[in-house]
Amino acid sequence: MTDTSAAPRGRFLERTSPPHIITLVLLAGLSALSMNIFLPSLPSMAVYFETEPWLVAMAVPVYLAVNAVLQLGIGPISDRYGRRPVLLGSLIIFLIATLGTLWAPTIEWFLGFRMVQAVIVAGLVLSRAIVRDMVPAEQAASMIGYVTMGMAFVPMIGPMIGGALDEVFGWQANFWLLLLIGLAVLWLVWRDLGETAGNRSASFRAQFAEYPELLASPRFWGYCAAAAFASGAFFAYLGGAPFVATEYFDLSPALMGAYFGFPALGYAAGNYVSGRYSVRMGINTMILIGAGLTFGGLVLQTGLFLLGIAHPALFFGLFIFVGLGNGMVLPNANAGMLSVRPHLAGTASGLGGAMMIGGGAALSALAGTILTEGSGPLPLLTLMLITSALSLVAVAAVLRRERFLRMQG
Q1: Where are the domains of the chain?
Q2: Residue 6's pLDDT is what?
Q3: 3-state secondary structure the chain
Q4: What CATH number does the domain located at 18-197+209-408 have?
Q5: Residue 206: per-residue pLDDT
Q6: Per-residue pLDDT averaged across 117-146, rounded?
Q7: Which residue in 31, 64, 90, 120 is deepest, having the highest Cβ count within 10 Å?
Q8: Is the pLDDT of residue 347 over 80?
């Protein structure tokens, strides 16, 4: 078992030491909050911009798509120049883009600034890479679990707060809140986050020369696929659940925001389990159990719906299994992909994150496309079942690969 006492302990608000875990939680949390706080406001935003609801809903997939592309660059740049300058620059750009969303005169301008806002994904990518800079693989899974457990409470309460703010002050209040939190996190990163990337490449050319070592690893791709398909179920939910809530269940923005908290509650529980047991049980076992819980929960949910049991509290409540499974799969799969080549932790985090978010953008858009008036929630449930099954297949491939290597050794 890894000795957790060996983890470096940063001095809080000291720029020359590793960051405090609170700083990493808030960095990752701001990335998550920016993704979902405004979801209950989509109908009122369509009215404000005098446009079709589907066009406003594109604020989710276009954000995720740019998010994915940025991760391909953020990881390598941070491996080359360090975590601290990349995070500070990303936060400043995010704040400027957030002001742009507030002043946007048309939906096209809003979507443009929304795409720039995606730069805040640096907080999510680099909080994981910083953990891997500080501790070894199994301990990294545990620490990432605790970081994302804290982060999970942010998206859990985000839509609740967003729905309440929309009803009282209008949709813009969500983005004013993002601006204020972003300013606070920028100050905290400036004061607390010391550089952790100790073995930086001499040049991008030298760094890219090491990529085949990472990209040729079946274990890396297995962990990436397990994480991408597991999170794919959640992103499909993000793309389709607002439509189901408003068109099928006729929920108000505030009630919709409350129901949206169930997956995040499960995610927090799954992250706690990861933080508590990953070192003891191993990352592969935790990924397998988590993927199984997601798939099993969706099978139960689909079965109940087909039987005609579809109260909104039960329907959205059962999505807690999606969150629970993701909370076990993602910290451990991320620790796995970052441990394949530790000196390329930022690159591995960015590439793995790009697969997750890029796939999520596609699934989010697909969920919004397949749900039409009269379709009901069944197309969404079917899509989520397929992606969660593929996550199980991916982790089974990783386990098979490890058994093969043990036999060879």
Answers
A1: 18-197+209-408
A2: 43
A3: CCCHHHCCCCCCCCCCCCCCHHHHHHHHHHHHHHHHCCHHHHHHHHHHCCCCHHHHHCHHHHHHHHHHHHHHHHHHHHHHHCHHHHHHHHHHHHHHHHHHHHHCCCHHHHHHHHHHHHHHHHHHHHHHHHHHHHCCHHHHHHHHHHHHHHHHHHHHHHHHHHHHHHHHHCCHHHHHHHHHHHHHHHHHHHHHCCCCCCCCCCCHHHHHHCHHHHHCCHHHHHHHHHHHHHHHHHHHHHHHHHHHHHHHCCCCHHHHHHHCHHHHHHHHHHHHHHHHHHHHHCHHHHHHHHHHHHHHHHHHHHHHHHCCCCCHHHHHHCCHHHHHHHHHHHHHHHHHHHHCCHHHHHHHHHHHHHHHHHHHHHHHHHHHHHCCCCCCCHHHHHHHHHHHHHHHHHHHHHHHHHHHHHHHC
A4: 1.20.1250.20
A5: 65
A6: 77
A7: 120
A8: no
**What pTM was computed for the model?**
0.71
Flag whether pLDDT at 197 surpasses 80. no
pLDDT of residue 363: 81
